[in-house]
Task: structure prediction
Amino acid sequence: MEMLMIVPGLVLMVIGAEGLVRGASRLAAAVGVSPLIIGLTVVAFGTSAPEMAVSVEASLRGQADIALGNVVGSNIFNVLFILGISALIVPLVVSEQLIRLDVPVMITLSVLLLVLCLDGRLGLFDGALLSAGLVGYICFLIYESRRNPSTEIGEVEELLSGGGAQSGWLMNAVLVIGGLVLLVLGSHWFVEAAIVMAEYFGVSELVIGLTIVAAGTSMPEVVTSIVAAMRGQRDIAVGNVVGSNIFNIMGVMGLAGLVAPGGVDISPAFIAFDLPIMIAVAVACLPVFFTGGVIGRWKGLMLFGYYCAYTAYLILRASEHDALSNFSAVMAYFVLPITIITLVWVTIRELRRRTVPS
Result:
């Protein structure tokens, strides 16, 4: 019965995140904060509220594998699944800022997280460092937005136009408090159900965190990116994913390191495989985004295919299936080399196109 609580837990977290974002955005607008800054802070990172709630809850309970798997699995899911599905619906536009700034930041943070985890523990200092980095990153975004006010804010204006100023301080405060309560309650149910599910299926909590928990807490990003793509706001669909991944590392892992009693324990398997996969996915964004400034349908199919392959590998590894060795060989000696050669080729072609005078 407890296993079934994963669904209402997820529903409560999604509703709570929505209420928190709407209430906080409208309160910020009421005190004179510009829609642009709201978009760069509250709305941009609001979709990661379920990840934060679950990882903090798991850290406080000593369930380190769920806390870590949730963040790393969400980052992998965001790029491979969400961008893959969104690009299959409609080709996605990639802004120059993402290529020049945000993706390199995401790659750097992914490598930094690996370095911080090498000692087998994400402690208080590590959490403080990541949290301070998030504050600095937000300050930099605000500075850049004021220097170059052309940033897309349509989504925020639409959010604020839905009666935000007219609904009053009390109603918005209720939305914020109610959203927080729902996030806490939903994350508690969600983590409880994830632990029971891992025990029931006989797999590790890390695998559950990397798959079911990660996919569940990423539902706000799924909805945001797909809806944005269908509405023609194709650069928002990509920016939402990259921004969420940055916040997951600095905000979610930072806070988890700060609140976990004695720090978050890191398993050797997590350091040896799952973190490097997250880094590889982040690095792959550069050639995928760079070529033509568009994520076409063939790239979307490639991303989605790799998510299916990654999930299949986790399932085969967890069940110790006989097909694991053959599957790994096909991926390592056939699929991955072809993908790397293809990405290198299209990147070289794009560089030549940009350097040849028109």
Q: What stands out?
A: The radius of gyration is 20 Å.
